[in-house]
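Dear Dr. H.,

I hope your travels went smoothly. While you were away I took the liberty of generating a structure for the chain from your last submission, since the lab meeting agenda had it listed for discussion. I wanted you to have the full record in hand beforehand rather than looking at slides cold. The sequence, exactly as received, is reproduced here:
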Amino acid sequence: MILVTGATGYTGGFLARSLLAVVEEEVRFFVRPSSDRSRLPPGPSEVFAGDLARPKEVAAACRGVSRIVHLAHIRYARTLVECLASSVDHVVMISSLRRFSQVESVSVEEVIRGEECALNSGIPCTILRPSMIFGPGDDRNISRMAAHLRRIRCIPVFGSGRHLQQPVFVDDVVGAILASLARGPGGEYALAGPRALSYNEVIDLVGNAIGVRPLKLHIPVHLALAVCHLARILPIELALDGEQVRRLQEDKCYAIDAAAEDLDFAPLGFEAALTRIYRSGPEATPGHRDQVAETG
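The corresponding predicted structure, in token form, is as follows:
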């Protein structure tokens, strides 16, 4: 049996459908009792309600399981590895390339500690680190940029906008997970798009895909950080914080050669993926990529 955590999340919905289509063994989805289960596909699967912060519930979910895909936040890795039975053959841990950010934050530390826990535990595991995941529906990333541009073509850019991004299409992340399950344990892999793009280029390509010519309003970084600081003091609700502004000033450029060699990872280009999302059918339909096919 395969156990999947985080199956009700964005990437989880795509993975659930693909997993049920390609594996012959039973699949168990571990979900919070309060989770919206609408992303879970109908079919021969088991849904186990529980909380990853509660060891007894995690241990119960792991009974009879031989392989695990841990899509939920990697901060729960400690609880998971402490509850695993010796019969577990392989755990695919979905981490994040955020771990390499030089911006100090709790979220980065959580990713680093989660990975260290998994790697030091001795369990047979693989670490997959996606970059910013995007795809059909509300990916909470590119889809929100597109929605903003449709409403208002003027979009704020903090700093020069020349720093690099390397988003990865959700179907390609799912494909890498399935390939990792088939390959077996071992390895740490970056999952990102085929090439890095400047943030300015990302905006322009999204605008082109939806038929909008974006008007970029460049805001000095020091001014944006001052506004974020003021918002914390007053307090005022903002759609971003200082950590996000600082992270946008980092180049997110990653080598994907190892994943290409070991997992046959051949990601779709950003522009081609946008065309698939916005010009080839309903945006909210998961698993566009022949069913072979999230992180905040």
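Two observations you may find useful: The radius of gyration is 19 Å. Residues 2-279 form a domain with the Rossmann fold fold (CATH 3.40.50.720).

With kind regards,
E. W.
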